[in-house]
Structures are given as C-alpha cells and as structure tokens.
Amino acid sequence: MKNKTFLVTGGTAGIGYQVASELKALGANVLITGRNNAKLDNVSGELGVSAYHCDSGKPEDIQALADTLKKQDVTLDGVVLNAGVFFPKPIGEVNVDDFGHTFAVNTFGPYLTLQALLPLMKNPSSVVFVSSVVVEKAFPGTAVYTASKAALEGMAGILNLELAPRGIRVNSVRPGVTLTEIQSKAGLSEDQIEALAKDMETTPIGRALKAGDISGSVAFLLSDASLAMRNASVTVDGGVRL
C-alpha cells in the first residue's frame, strides 16, 4: 500500500475516517471528501491527508472534485465509495423525497463519482462500495435504505464487466450494525442507540461493531492481495445474520 493513492468519500467520520486512518498508517497517500469544511480541516490536520469538499448527493460537486483532482495531476490506485445516509422510517411514514435523497447519496452518488474519476484511475486499480448487511438481513424501517444499497451492489457486476479492460475491479463490503455518527444523524436518541447496542450483545461477537472492525476488509480489497476478486461482497457483521 506504500506510496499508493486512495480516495475515500465521506472520510471525516465513522467507517470512512477509520479507513482513511488505516490506509495512512499503511503508508498510502490518502484523499478524503466530505460536506463539512471544519471537519475536513480537522481530519486533514489530524491524519495528514488531503481533504476536498464534496457532497456526494450533488452531481455538480462530484464533477468539480474530479476537475480539481485532474488539474492537480492526481492518479488513483483505488476509490472507497463510502459516503451515505440512513433515515429509517416505517412504510406509513415514507414519502417520495425519502427515496430521492437516499438514492441520490447512496446509489447515484457512488456511480457518478466513479464515472467522473475514471480518467484518473490506474491500471490496475480497485473500487470498494461500502454497502450494508441490510441486503442480506431484514430490519424494520429500512426499506428505502436497503433498496439503495441493493441497487448499488446490483451495479457492481456490470461495472466489473465494463471496466475489466482497464484493469479496474469492483467489490463491496457489507458492514453489520456499526456504531458511528450515522445513528444520531438518523434521529435516534441516546436511549435508542444504547438499546441497539444492547441488542447486539446477543450476536456471536457479543457487541455492536466499531468502525475499526470494518476498515481492515476495505484495506484488503484495495490491496494487491485482492487482484483476482471481482464482484465479491464481503460481509463483516459480527454474526448478526446467524
């Protein structure tokens, strides 16, 4: 991984932050994106990574990011498409705007980001979709989120076929219930988050996951050790499906 260059979307917190930190520790050059400029500045200084403002739900931001990187002569050994949103609601409360916003960030965003960055990608290079265990295990209130992640993974096979001549491979990681900022951003109270963590004590790992439980699998899929992997979906869930 030393001296390779990777971009991580949504790199200011949670899984994205941990992936960026781990890649940096392995000697890689790391670029992160995010929406909050203050957080971008803090993480850039803390980890020694390059930070770029980009809202993954806005195509104009994605294109501006690609244009900036091209002007800076950046070439990429891999991209981690991690930025995402999660707003759980039961069917009686879901509206069309929930679908629009969730798919804009979780599905269209990764696809359009990869599309825009293709001219910068090396041969070989790796793309990692950060998906979710929800595509395998049903959780009440997550229909919109689940659909967005299933659609994301559904594109991976086609992308592998289309990008194979360029040496680009696409694989996915499916995190289980991982305690990050995403729960509070989704509107869960502290009591609800504590209850969620308590529920996870019944899983084989005996706890909810941490971002550090996920980052190693992402790093592996970016490494040359995964060169033969195409369209794999690596589930890291602590056994919650069992």
TrEMBL record:
Which EC number(s) does the record attach to this protein? Answer: 1.1.1.163
Q: Keywords in UniProt for this one? A: Oxidoreductase
Q: Which Pfam families is this protein grouped with?
A: adh_short_C2
User: Is Endoplasmic reticulum among the key words of this record?
Assistant: no
The EC category is oxidoreductase
> Could you tell me which InterPro entries the record lists for this protein?
KR_dom (IPR057326), NAD(P)-bd_dom_sf (IPR036291), SDR_fam (IPR002347)
Q: Domain named Ketoreductase: which ranges?
A: 4-176
List the Gene3D superfamilies: NAD(P)-binding Rossmann-like Domain
Care to name a GO molecular-function term for this sequence?
cyclopentanol dehydrogenase activity
User: Which family does this protein fall into?
Assistant: Belongs to the short-chain dehydrogenases/reductases (SDR) family.
What PANTHER family does the annotation carry? EG:BACR7A4.14 PROTEIN-RELATED, ZGC:101858
- What is the designated name of this protein? Cyclopentanol dehydrogenase
Origin species, per record, is Grimontia celer
Highest classification ranks of the organism? Bacteria, Pseudomonadati, Pseudomonadota, Gammaproteobacteria, Vibrionales
Gene coding for it: cpnA
